[in-house]
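User: Please fill in residues for this 246-position structure.
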């Protein structure tokens, strides 16, 4: 990673947790249960995400809800170790960037974490989110993505998401190539990217692409093991992997 500035003291205390998706690939489980409330080894996906946020020192999480939103809200009331604000998207699911735009007033004007509610990981020794914060450099970065190495992951199908340059900037993987690096569903982002943008259905991918064009999208390879459960069958695979990591 490039030289960091004030990395010893930088500790984001706010996160956006993206939890409003339909989870269609997880049917029939998600016909009655929102995907973030699916359990893997006895713990819901969203609680696993909130756990790592708490461990990293995050004090406030903004969680967007849409599908089976009442269940999400009731479950989130059980957490008393982190302040949770609901961003209600019942009327219209706004996708990843749109959800952040709607929640921006609650997220504040300082760099915050983004966390997907349907992926999780096991840290090796140190918190990967704390490492992400230690590598953040606002003078060089608009977005810093946490990357998983496919050789230390479970449940991923695909050709990878980004190539990692020597200076830790990222570039997209061409359609005829593969990469060992997967976007791990966690990132740091400068909220200034979203200021003045109209709230609409929009994806973070367009912001990733703009940051690549500006040379300001960076990546950090996480330490430990990354897991994703895209189908009901993948739950057993993830639980088996967790047993080997215990």
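Assistant: Residues filled in for all 246 positions:
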């Amino acid at each position: 990673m490039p030289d960091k500035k004030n990395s010893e003291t930088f500790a984001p205390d706010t996160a956006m947790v993206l939890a409003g998706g339909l989870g269609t690939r997880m049917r029939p489980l998600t016909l009655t249960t929102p995907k973030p409330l699916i359990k893997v080894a006895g713990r819901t996906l969203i609680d696993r995400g909130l756990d790592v946020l708490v461990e990293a020192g995050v004090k406030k999480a903004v969680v967007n809800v849409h599908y089976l939103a009442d269940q999400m809200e009731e479950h989130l009331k059980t957490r008393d170790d982190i302040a949770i604000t609901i961003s209600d998207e019942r009327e219209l699911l706004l996708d990843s960037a749109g959800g952040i735009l709607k929640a921006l007033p609650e997220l504040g004007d300082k760099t915050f974490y983004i966390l997907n509610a349907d992926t999780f990981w096991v840290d090796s020794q140190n918190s990967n989110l704390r490492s992400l914060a230690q590598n953040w450099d606002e003078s060089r970065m608009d977005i810093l993505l946490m990357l998983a190495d496919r050789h230390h992951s479970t449940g991923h199908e695909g050709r990878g998401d980004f190539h990692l340059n020597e200076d830790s900037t990222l570039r997209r993987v061409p359609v005829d190539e593969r990469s060992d690096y997967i976007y791990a569903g966690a990132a740091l982002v400068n909220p200034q990217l979203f200021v003045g943008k109209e709230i609409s259905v929009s994806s973070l991918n367009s912001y990733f692409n703009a940051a690549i064009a500006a040379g300001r999208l960076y990546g950090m390879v996480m330490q430990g093991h990354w897991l994703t459960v895209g189908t009901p069958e993948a739950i057993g695979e993830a639980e088996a992997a967790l047993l080997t990591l215990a």
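For context: The longest helix spans residues 232-245.
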